């Protein structure tokens, strides 16, 4: 496969490839096929090339790099949420180390007075090892954040974790932690019921489409169906006064959410937009210029590879990025 990536034919084609979202939206059929081929064969592409292309999606490997990224966002009127990369930890020691890392990150952001909160994944805190162990780990992080007046969002992972994640969230709220939020995925058929339960708690919810591959029995599969579900869940939450993090790069959903904000006369402190670092920055700037609050999800850490592959697979301009990075790598 490396021979194919390295062939003169690919090199000759590279200067014709789009590398911006605008350009990629006018792709011809062969270009789509090339993108899809590259997405499917990403695991075969050398890690150094993936690293080069994914720089835009990741703040770096160190806490210093994450601090700089958050500071830059704050200077540009955006909030942040930090994500220490790494999921599916299957042993107790690294899960406990993750708790210590989170405390260090929370303390650093507090001492630098940066406007960021924290997004944790339960599978990095031992969910796949033992439910109670995981609960105590996330409780300790949420407690630490509360002691400095900050907030922790529990990301939603694949459907094998949905019940446990919501259970842990409900238990934290029952124990009196108000500084914790959860995520609802609009592709899940169960989400309306979950939202109705969360509304009773006055939950702070991030609403997103959902990123994992789920079977049709439990998840909507059609693009417009997932959008429609997103809009109707947002309507339900706004109608009931919930605080929502509207997490999308889909302009259609941004426009629909503007309409709902108007319909329910939501004030600026009652919702926020959320976007991933490095994705659709023009849309991000438009939302901020329109006067809405916006938070950028900032991943960092040593475990950058799996996250990068996921982001690249979603990127419609992937072929251009990968091949151009490959060419630059060959020149150095
Ligand atoms: C802040 C935040 C937190 C999230 N948390 C979770 C979570 O906890 N659990 C979960 O399952 N999912 C999470 N997601 C991912 C989410 O579920 C979607 O998979 C993702 O946001 C893509 O959906 P979209 O609404 O942006 O629409 P899409 O239709 O996928 O994207 C809209 C447009 O954005 C552009 N775009 C999208 N992705 C990229 C990319 N990587 N590079 C370049 N352009 C791109 C494309 O132009 C695309 O046409 C989160 C997303 C955000 C923004």
What features would you describe in this structure?
This protein has 332 residues and is of the alpha/beta class. The chain has 15 helices and 8 strands. An 8-stranded parallel barrel has the order 1-2-3-4-5-6-7-8, surrounded by 7 helices. Helix 5 packs across helix 15. Strand 2, helix 8 and strand 3 (152-154) form a beta-alpha-beta unit. The radius of gyration is 20 Å and the shape is globular. The chain has helices at 2-5, 8-14, 21-24, 29-40, 47-53, 63-75, 92-111, 131-147, 162-174, 191-201, 223-239, 251-263, 281-289, 304-314, 318-331, and strands at 79-84, 116-120, 152-154, 180-185, 204-208, 243-247, 271-276, 294-300. It has 2 domains: 2-54 and 312-331, no CATH class; 59-300, TIM Barrel. The site of flavin-adenine dinucleotide (FAD) has 24 residues, from strand 4, strand 7 and helix 14.
